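Async update (no meeting this week)

Hi team, since we skipped the sync, here's where things stand on the single-chain job. The sequence we agreed to prioritize is pasted below, unchanged from the tracker. I ran it this morning and attached the output directly underneath so nobody has to dig for it. Comments welcome in thread, and please keep replies under the output.
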Amino acid sequence: MGQIEWAMWANEQALAAGLIMLTGGVVAVAGQFKGWYFAAYAIAAGVLVCLLEYPRSKRKKGSTMERCGQKYLTAVVKVFGPLTRNYYIRAVLHAALAVPAGFLLSTILGTVCLGIASGIYLLAAVRGEEWRPIEQKPRERLHVGETIKQPPSNPPPRPPADARKKQPAEVGGQVNPIPVEAE
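Output:
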């Protein structure tokens, strides 16, 4: 049985946590909660976490399904180099981002989810995993001349002329074997 790639699970958990934290922050700001400044922080932290976690990492074995539009954010995440590639740094960053949002009821669920994601990232880092971008493979263009070596020179075989003509029974229609009488 293969090894579990913990970073994949942490990525999904952190992306969901960012969306939950963002939603909780919007609810608190729109509802004019007492600690609205924590909600404003939760909106900013949720957006940052979503932008950081949207690009998936390439798996060690097997294929990785790329998210829609991931290639654009992958370029941004690659620019920051070891800061975004190292899962120890991600674990600490997520734990630090989660703390201030924990002081407001509407963002507490996002805080807990981000804390769990931080723990999973720490486990992935201890096991030696790191973020690797999904590189696009150049597609090989197939030329018509290369795919078809020689077009067919003879037409496809046809049945003899006698077999192609309809038999007289077929022309008239079908014969009912049971006699039918009208009353």
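Quick observations from my side:
The longest helix spans residues 6-30.
The mean pLDDT is 84.
Reply here if anything looks off.
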